[in-house]
Design a protein that fits this description.
- This protein is an alpha/beta fold and 169 residues long.
- Helix content is 30%, strand content 16%.
- The protein contains five helices and seven strands.
- α3 links the parallel β2 and β3.
- α4 crosses α5.
- 17% of the residues are buried.
Length: 169
């Protein structure tokens, strides 16, 4: 049984260039499916469905019960196929996704990949049990005021809650 990559519509919308690069690289290794909600193809029983987002996993489990869903981070960490860039010096915060609370293998794989990419990361105060959102990681940078702020793709200011110590949480 082979693997099929299901690209995330959410990821494609949020990061079109990164999604395109990942889709191209994955296409060199395995078939790339369409949207998990609308794809009409037949897939072999027991094949592995690689997914990026939790909504895709839930859709794949419902629409393609013959496929075995596997998170892309877990697969990337195990297969060690792609050369990962060195982002040492960059710090990211991690908030475990509430939807993945029963999938600790995803949290472990994410941390393992980040260890290779970054050499360090910060864990947020809220854990996977109490997480209010499904944000896997958020890039952070030092603001001119000296506190940590969210660095969004648009360069907008801090979107996180400030604490009394002047740090974002």
């Amino acid at each position: 049984m082979g693997s099929i990559y299901f690209p995330s519509c959410n990821f494609t919308k949020a990061s079109p260039q990164a999604a395109k690069l990942l889709r191209e690289r994955m296409a060199g290794l395995m078939p790339v499916a369409g949207c998990c909600r609308t794809d009409r193809r037949e897939y072999p029983e027991g094949g592995r469905a690689l997914y990026f987002c939790q909504a895709c996993r839930e859709t794949l489990e419902a629409r393609f019960p013959g496929l075995v869903p596997e998170n892309l981070f877990v697969w990337l960490d195990r297969e060690d196929i792609f050369e990962l860039p060195d982002y040492s010096g960059l710090t990211v915060s991690i908030q475990d996704c509430w939807r993945d609370r029963e999938h600790p293998e995803i949290h472990g794989a994410g941390r393992s990949l980040l260890a290779w990419l970054l050499r360090r990361y910060l864990k947020t105060v809220s854990g996977r049990i109490t997480a209010a959102t499904c944000t896997f990681s958020q890039t952070r940078r030092r603001s001119t005021a000296g506190s940590w702020c969210s660095a969004t793709a648009t360069g907008a200011g801090c979107a996180l809650r400030r604490t009394e110590a002047g740090r974002c949480t």
